Amino acid sequence: MNPTLIIFDADSGPAQTIQQFKESGIKTITLNRPDTINNILRNINTIGKETGKSQLAEKLVYSNKLDIKKAQKLLPHHEIPGMFLMFRNDTLVTLGSNSLGNNWLKYLNIKNLNKVSNTKVNKESLLKTQAKIILIASEEKKMSDSYKKIFNLLKKNGTKIIFVPVLDIEKSGSSFGQTYYKLSKVIYGIN
Q1: Integer Cα distance of 70 and 2 in angstroms
Q2: How far apart are CA 12 and CA 166, in angstroms?
Q3: pLDDT tens, position by position, 50-101
Q4: Which of the chain's termini has less CB crowding within 10 Å, N or C?
């Protein structure tokens, strides 16, 4: 392929492979972990600089900052207990403290009640949750009736259930601000 630049995300590995690329003479950069909004904006600038598109990157950062500012005006002043779950194959799994879902919860001022990722969620335990907000990443259209019943019961008890397209949570790049603002509006009730 003859690349002139290889971009690694913060979790790329193994370290030996990355070192081999660096020693190959091909320019490499490693992005910051997208665990803070500032790191996301830095990554946009870094990619812009390294690809000769600094002006475009600056415009993207500016646009993102506008959306971020609008989103943050909607956030509550205190953390709200919640969780981010992934729905696939009619199963819910947790997105814990070291996940992209956890990053989104932090951005949205939601305290993640899940510490561990990829743990199957027991349907009955959902009914006992202290979560006020549950985000569910899913691309699936079909859900079993038992999940629908549980979600309806949770809603009646005041828990906000929000389905988020999987692709939206993966947006920690150039359109981050738009996604952040969109989620803030949906979660905190502003249309």
Answers
A1: 42
A2: 21
A3: 999 999 999 999 999 999 999 999 999 999 999 999 988 888 999 998 888 9
A4: N
